[in-house]
C-alpha cells in the first residue's frame, strides 16, 4: 500500500488551457460566468485545479489561442501561481489558408506558412521552458481524387523533419492521430500506425500521442498503448470520453472501465513515469469548467489507483496456468475496489482537503471570478 500511495502522490496530470474558456458545438456556445478573458486568467483557473487535487501542476497552451506578447512573462506568472507550462499545442487548422490542408497542402506557400507556425511553437517552448510540442493536423481530403494521397505523406514527412531538426536539447514532439474530421474521405494522420511510422523514421524525439476520442468505435485502445510503450514510442495521452465521435467529454465519464484498462497497460508497460505525458484534452460545454477539470483529474486518479491495485503476481500465475476466469477475476477485483477512501486519505497526507470538489465549491473562487471578470471578451475555443 505504501508503494501505491507513493506512486499516486507522484502522479502528474496536465490540464488544457482551452478547457477553461468557452466552448460548445457548432450549434451553440453557452457563455458561463467567470470565464477567463486571457491566457493569464486561464492559468489562474488551472492553478485552482492543482490546489484542490495536488496532481495537476502543468497547463498545456494552444497557439494562437494563448498568444501573448511575452511568453517568458506568462511562464513566470504560471510559476507564481504554483503551476508550470506544459505542452505547446500547435494550431494549423483555423486559418483560411488551410482549407485544403496545412503541411500537406498542395501549395508550397501554405506548407511554408504552416511549418513556420510549428517552428514558432518551438520558439515558445524555448521561452516558456516547455519540453513538449504537440502536433495535430486537420489535414486530409473529402473526395477520392481530390489530391494525391502519397504526395501528401511526402509533404508531411518533409515538414515533420524540419520541425524535428529544430528541436533543442530535452525537447520532443508528439504526433497526434485522428481517424476523421474535419476531413472525411482520408485524413493524413488517421491512425497510430501512420503516426508511429513517421516517428520511427524521425528518431527518439518524435513520439505518438493517443487521444482517447480519436478512434473508431470499439477500438481496443489499451492494445495501442501496450504496443507503443513496448516500442518506446508512447509520448502521452489526450484524455477525454466519447460516446459517438470526438465528443471531448470528461475523461472517465463515458467508460471508466476503458480508462482503467488503459492505465493498467501503462503501469504494466513501465509507462507510469514523467516520460509519458498524461494530458486532458476536453471541453466543458454545459458543465462548469473548473469543477469539470477537477472531476476529470479525479477520474484519472481513481482509474490509476485501481490499476495499481491489480495483483500482478496473482494475474501472472493465473495467466500462466491458462486460468481464464481466474485471470479475469484478478483484474475485475481491482477495478471493483472502491478507491475513494484511499485517495481521500492520501490527500489528507498531502495536506489537501479529502474531497477536491467540495474544497473548490467552498473556496469562494467561483464567486470571486464571476464578480471580477465582467467586461472584456471571454476567451473561447477558437478565440
Ligand atoms: C483535435 O480534435 C484535437 O484533439 C487536437 O489535440 C487539438 O489540438 C485539440 O483537439 C483542440 O481541442
Ligand atoms: Mn487531442
TrEMBL record:
<dbReference type="InterPro" id="IPR013457">
    <property type="entry name" value="Rhamnose_iso-rel"/>
</dbReference>
<dbReference type="GO" id="GO:0009045">
    <property type="term" value="F:xylose isomerase activity"/>
</dbReference>
<keyword id="KW-0464">Manganese</keyword>
<keyword id="KW-0413">Isomerase</keyword>
<keyword id="KW-0479">Metal-binding</keyword>
<dbReference type="InterPro" id="IPR013022">
    <property type="entry name" value="Xyl_isomerase-like_TIM-brl"/>
</dbReference>
<protein>
    <submittedName>
        <fullName>Xylose isomerase</fullName>
        <ecNumber>5.3.1.5</ecNumber>
    </submittedName>
</protein>
<feature type="domain" description="Xylose isomerase-like TIM barrel">
    <location>
        <begin position="64"/>
        <end position="242"/>
    </location>
</feature>
<dbReference type="InterPro" id="IPR036237">
    <property type="entry name" value="Xyl_isomerase-like_sf"/>
</dbReference>
<dbReference type="Pfam" id="PF01261">
    <property type="entry name" value="AP_endonuc_2"/>
</dbReference>
<dbReference type="InterPro" id="IPR050337">
    <property type="entry name" value="L-rhamnose_isomerase"/>
</dbReference>
Amino acid at each position: 500500500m505504501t508503494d501505491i500511495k507513493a506512486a499516486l502522490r507522484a502522479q502528474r496530470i496536465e490540464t488544457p488551457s482551452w478547457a477553461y474558456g468557452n466552448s460548445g458545438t457548432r450549434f451553440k456556445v453557452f457563455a458561463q460566468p467567470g470565464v477567463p478573458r486571457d491566457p493569464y486568467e486561464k492559468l489562474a483557473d488551472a492553478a485552482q485545479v492543482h490546489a484542490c487535487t495536488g496532481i495537476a501542476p502543468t497547463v498545456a497552451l494552444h497557439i494562437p489561442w494563448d498568444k501573448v506578447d511575452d511568453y517568458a512573462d506568462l511562464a513566470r506568472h504560471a510559476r507564481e501561481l504554483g503551476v508550470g507550462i506544459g505542452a505547446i499545442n500547435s494550431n494549423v487548422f483555423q486559418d483560411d489558408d488551410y482549407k485544403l490542408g496545412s503541411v500537406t497542402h498542395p501549395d508550397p506557400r501554405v506548407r511554408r506558412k504552416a511549418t513556420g507556425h510549428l517552428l514558432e511553437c518551438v520558439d515558445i517552448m524555448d521561452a516558456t521552458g516547455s519540453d513538449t510540442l504537440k502536433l495535430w493536423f486537420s489535414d486530409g481530403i473529402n473526395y477520392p481524387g481530390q489530391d494525391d494521397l502519397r504526395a501528401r505523406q511526402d509533404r508531411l514527412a518533409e515538414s515533420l523533419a524540419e520541425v524535428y531538426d529544430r528541436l533543442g536539447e530535452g525537447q520532443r514532439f508528439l504526433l497526434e492521430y485522428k481517424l476523421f474530421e474535419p476531413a472525411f474521405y482520408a485524413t493524413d494522420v488517421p491512425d497510430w500506425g501512420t503516426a508511429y511510422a513517421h516517428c520511427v523514421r524521425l528518431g527518439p524525439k518524435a513520439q505518438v500521442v493517443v487521444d482517447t476520442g480519436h478512434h473508431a468505435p470499439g477500438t481496443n485502445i489499451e492494445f495501442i498503448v501496450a504496443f507503443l510503450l513496448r516500442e518506446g514510442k508512447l509520448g502521452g495521452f489526450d484524455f477525454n470520453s466519447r460516446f459517438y465521435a470526438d465528443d471531448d467529454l470528461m475523461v472517465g465519464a463515458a467508460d471508466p472501465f476503458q480508462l482503467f484498462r488503459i492505465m493498467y497497460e501503462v503501469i504494466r508497460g513501465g509507462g507510469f513515469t514523467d516520460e509519458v505525458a498524461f494530458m486532458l484534452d476536453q471541453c466543458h460545454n454545459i458543465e462548469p469548467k473548473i469543477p469539470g477539470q477537477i472531476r476529470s483529474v479525479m477520474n484519472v486518479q481513481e482509474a490509476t489507483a485501481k490499476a495499481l491495485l491489480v495483483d500482478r503476481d496473482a494475474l501472472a500465475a493465473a495467466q500462466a496456468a491458462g486460468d481464464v476466469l481466474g485471470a479475469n477475476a484478478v483484474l475485475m477485483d481491482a477495478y471493483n475496489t472502491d478507491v475513494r477512501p484511499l485517495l481521500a486519505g492520501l490527500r489528507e497526507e498531502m495536506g489537501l482537503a479529502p474531497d477536491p470538489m467540495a474544497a473548490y465549491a467552498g473556496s469562494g473562487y467561483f464567486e470571486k471570478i464571476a464578480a471580477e471578470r465582467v467586461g472584456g471578451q471571454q476567451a473561447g475555443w477558437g478565440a
